[in-house]
Design a protein that fits this description.
Blueprint (H helix, E strand, L loop, with lengths): L79 E5 L9 E5 L4 E6 L6 H4 L1 E9 L31 H15 L11 E4 L9 H12 L1 E3 L42 H5 L3 E3 L6 E2 L19 H6 L3 E2 L5 H13 L6 H9 L5 E2 L11 H9 L15 H6 L4 E6 L2 E5 L13 E2 H13 L4 E5 L21 E2 L1 H9 L4 E6 L6 E5 L2 E5 L10 E8 L4 E9 L14 H14 L16 E6 L1
Parallel strand pairs: 3-21, 4-5, 5-8, 12-14, 14-16, 16-18
Antiparallel strand pairs: 1-2, 4-19, 6-7, 9-10, 11-12, 13-15, 17-18, 19-20, 20-21
Length: 583
Amino acid sequence: MTRIRSAVTAVDRRSFLAATGAVGVSAGIGLALGAGGGSGEAAAAPGASAPAVPAPRTPVPSTPAGTPSRAVPARTTLETVAAPRDSSAAFRRLGDGPGWRRVVRESLAAPRAGRAARRTVLSSFVQLTDLHLTDVQHPVRTEYLRSQGVSGWRPQEALTVPGAVALIEQINAVKAGPATGEPLSFAVTTGDNTDNNSRAELDWYLTVMSGGRITPNTGDDRRYEGVQNSDERLFWHPEDSRRDTDKEYGFPRIDGFLEAAIRSVNSPGLRLPWYSTVGNHDSLASGAMADRSGYLAEFAVGARKLYDIPDTDAVKLAKILAKGSMPGGGELIELLRRSRRGMRSVTPDPGRAPFGPREYLAAHLDPARGGAGPVGHGYSQANLDSDTLYYTFPMGENITGISLDTTDRAGHFTGSLDTTQFTWLERTLKEHRDGYVVVFSHHNSWTMTNTHPDPARPREGRHNGEEVLALLNRHRPVLAWVNGHSHRNSINARGSFWEISTASHIDFPQLARIIEITDNRDGTLSLFTTLIESAAPHRTDFHDLSQTGLAALYRELAHNAPGSTTAPAGKLMDRNTELLITR
């Protein structure tokens, strides 16, 4: 059996994407973007219903959006934040900690006295990013690469669905921006909504956001079939007392954990209209690979799963994935082909099949997924017709949102823009020169470094983050670029606007961000950012395996995940802020 290395890998978690839960492949990778590059306005419903993504193998009963949920206090991280009660303990239990104060940042403009009395609100919304709703039993996941670093597999991954529902509950409870009191008008996700690019996960994501009942289980209807009952010591086995890697870090025994993790969960759905932005994990196998052979798609729905590989293979594959140097997935496919004798039997499931861009669009356009609206959640029939995943949408009076697709369909976990979309972005910015603009994307500027051409469009160039920054700075209407991907909070002044990157909801401290934009009526604007946690209690109980109890446990497991740090929270200046800007 492979033994885990004691030292934590030096590779950044975002660079080690494929080791955190690799999966299916995006069917239809390489489809060319429409030459027109345009899209309809998000608020416009398509003329006819598009076909939906096929349902998972075992359909679950639908529950209407807005189903009543438990009473939740309207709290933000200004009031309190989950914090360890005993930081010296091997397994650090959480409780109520002090909140984070608001920091005024003056890099782009100086604050002027009396602005609070003068200001008017232009837009008030919430950003969710990197939910990574995860089918932990998916056959193509590469959990075995944890032997090359403990951060390569997360003990909390089985609880992503109840954790995400608790975040929805908190957003619904907050209702208004804490800086202005203005009701939140919409929410937007900035990608990596799913983890394994599987149809089951897409179904879970759309149901979590729009409301309904989710059974976060694939394969066998009655039992879990994954690494956490595999006898492999690399992983936390919650239902026995044998020594494993995570119990060496103080992880507890929790009887009934695996049965509870695959039990049905109810989401009330967001009570706000919400918009969707695509990420690399929503488009590519492992968030990095575009397998055009179809092998990974076939393997994903099959009856075999690999749990352990020799150290020599693990070292080689981990290096390749960390560099993003196998965009076609060839090395992983070759490993799976020659490792079949070492695989174990699992229950096959067509719900684990990958989805392509057109299926992603069609699923969003399904009126049954409308929730609080709008139909399509930003995407329109024009997107489906042109095979594009970028669009504009109204954010308030005289302010427009632009949602980009920064994923390279040819494969890689870093991002870029194709020339067609780059040209569309420039044209769109010019069209809104008399108003304000906020840009949304999955990748941030420093992770848009992949400019390899798409094999389907070899003559079309790609544009990196520096080029996008230069373009945005040429257009004064741009107030902010809001994104995710790096799994940490970071706010930076970028010439004439702010780049706001928010931490993920799968890694501690599991946050979303409220953003309020105000005109101070003195030649400046303020962008208020306020982080929120999920509605789950900070104090957890190992015996409470209810939906709420699992969401609390999700946070505590994430805090204690081997290799985790406090870095994702960022500095105070990256959390709750007032960002001044001249306009």
